[in-house]
Amino acid sequence: MRSAALCLFIVHRGLIVSTMQAVFSVVFYFSSVSLYPGFLMVGYGTVFTMLPVFSLVLDKDISSVAALRYPQLYKQMTKGRQLSYKTFYIWVGISIYQGGVIMYGALVLFEDQLIHIVEISYTALILTELIMVALTVVTWHRLMILAELVSLLMYTATLLIFTTYFDGDFIRHWDFWWKVTTITLVSCLPLYIVKYMHRKWSKRQYKNIKK
């Protein structure tokens, strides 16, 4: 399960930013200009999202004690449903949805401030990735929490230090943050609801097996 989650999340991480680039190019008359400069793309793939994504290897669907006590649960996990065509297409759909929401949301909510499209969409992208990792986790480990916090702090420091890429005055404005929060919620909240329903159903199956 851990390897499957890691593989799918790496696909999601790359596809969501590709979707955003595609939307950006289409909206601006199929421009070949890159949405983000190389520095931010490297940061996205490494310091801002790498630790939370790779911390997924610490996740556990069920405890080893429960797996030994209820072998039916372990049997379900060996069917390979965590990594299949179905789960792959689901994550592709999630990536396209979130990439589209972030990019179109940034264009709609910040219609009069398109010069700041990088700060807007990139911040929403990083927050979405960190939230998606949190939604994927079944059993939290202290290193997972540390990875999330470190990544968030590093991105916050980047916003304040690298003024070449980010407008500090614009970022400190309340209007920026509530709109970025709205975009992030629209991209993540529906998936949280679906995940909640799925986990509730999984717990019901777990209880039925225990009975």
TrEMBL record:
Its main location: membrane. Pfam families: PhoLip_ATPase_C (PF16212). GO terms for biological process: endocytosis; phospholipid translocation; retrograde vesicle-mediated transport, Golgi to endoplasmic reticulum. One of its GO terms (molecular function) is metal ion binding. SUPFAM superfamilies: Calcium ATPase, transmembrane domain M. It is a multi-pass membrane protein. Signal peptide: none annotated. Keywords: Magnesium, Membrane, Metal-binding, Transmembrane, Transmembrane helix. The keyword Membrane applies. Coiled coil: none annotated. This is P-type ATPase C-terminal domain-containing protein. It comes from Euphydryas editha (Edith's checkerspot).
